[in-house]
Amino acid sequence: MIIERTNNEVIFRLPGTINVDDLQDMTDLFEFMEIAKKSKAKQKDVDELVKSIKKGRWKRTKAKISV
Q1: C-alpha to C-alpha distance for 60 and 54, rounded to whole angstroms
Q2: Total number of domains in the chain
Q3: Fewer CB within 10 Å: C terminus or N terminus of the chain?
Q4: Any idea which of 2-11, 26-35, 44-53, 54-63 has the lowest mean pLDDT?
Q5: How many CB atoms within 10 Å of residue 12?
C-alpha cells in the first residue's frame, strides 16, 4: 500500500486483490468524517434526536411482528 499526498488530495494505492466491500466501508467512513467535520450539532442535540427516534420504537416493532 502506498499513500501519496498532493496539493489537493491524498491518493491510496492498494493491491488489486483488496476486498471491494471493505474498501467501500472505509470510503463511507471517510465521507462521514468529512460531513461530520462541518456539523455544528452539539452532542446534546444528537442525544435528543436519538431519544426522539427511539421513542415508541419497540411498540411499532411489536405491532409489525404481531401481524
Answers
A1: 10
A2: 1
A3: C
A4: 54-63
A5: 13
Contact 13, 23 (CB under 8 A): no
Q: What is the pTM of this model?
A: 0.55
Confidence of residue 23 (pLDDT cuts 50, 70, 90): very high
Cβ pair 1, 12 in contact under 8 A: yes
Dist. CA 25–CA 38, nearest whole Å: 21
Which residues span the domain enclosing 58?
2-65
HEC-encoded secondary structure of 2-65: EEEECCCCEEEECCCCCCHHHHHHHHHHHHHHHHHHCCCCCHHHHHHHHHHHHCCHHHHHHHHH
